[in-house]
């Protein structure tokens, strides 16, 4: 079995850089607002922590699903499209929440993009299972 997963590696690297940027933003806001733990009274810090948390809630599962898909032999075009959509969606989600804690076009794109990728990944893997069983 070949354990070389170049497409997953690419998007894991890109998403890690985005996660790092979100983390640095939290550190910057902690310094600016002099908050050592928690979020204090800083609305900006509350939003940044939530953006970071939301990323940490959804992206790891998607990366695991990318590994399974690529390992199973999913078409590279499908993986690149899903990876690109997820990356753009996560940037949009962060920008959308930064612009407004309420609804925004960017947040909507982020949520819909992330959920679409997860649903496509789940569908692919369930389909692959059914196809292998039958």
TrEMBL record:
Keyword hit for Transmembrane: yes
Pfam families: MAPEG
Record's keyword annotation contains Transferase: yes
Protein name: Glutathione S-transferase
Main location: membrane
PANTHER family: GLUTATHIONE S-TRANSFERASE-RELATED, PTHR35814
GO CC annotations, alphabetized: membrane
Protein's cellular compartments: Membrane
Parts of the chain that traverse the membrane: 6-27, 55-72, 78-97, 109-130
Organism: Pseudidiomarina donghaiensis
InterPro entries (alphabetical): MAPEG-like_dom_sf, Membr-assoc_MAPEG
GO molecular function term, any single one: transferase activity
Keywords of the record: Membrane, Transferase, Transmembrane, Transmembrane helix
């Amino acid at each position: 079995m070949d354990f070389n997963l170049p497409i997953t590696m690419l998007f894991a690297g890109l998403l890690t850089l985005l996660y790092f940027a979100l983390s640095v933003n939290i550190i910057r806001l902690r310094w600016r607002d002099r908050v050592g733990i928690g979020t204090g009274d800083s609305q900006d810090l509350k939003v940044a922590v939530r953006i970071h948390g939301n990323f940490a809630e959804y992206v790891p599962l998607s990366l695991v699903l990318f590994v399974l898909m690529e390992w199973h032999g999913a078409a590279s075009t499908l993986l690149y499209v899903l990876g690109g959509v997820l990356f753009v969606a996560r940037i949009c989600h962060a920008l959308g929440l930064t612009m407004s804690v309420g609804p925004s076009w960017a947040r909507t794109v982020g949520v819909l993009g992330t959920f679409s990728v997860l649903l496509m990944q789940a569908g692919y893997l369930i389909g692959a299972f059914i196809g292998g069983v039958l």
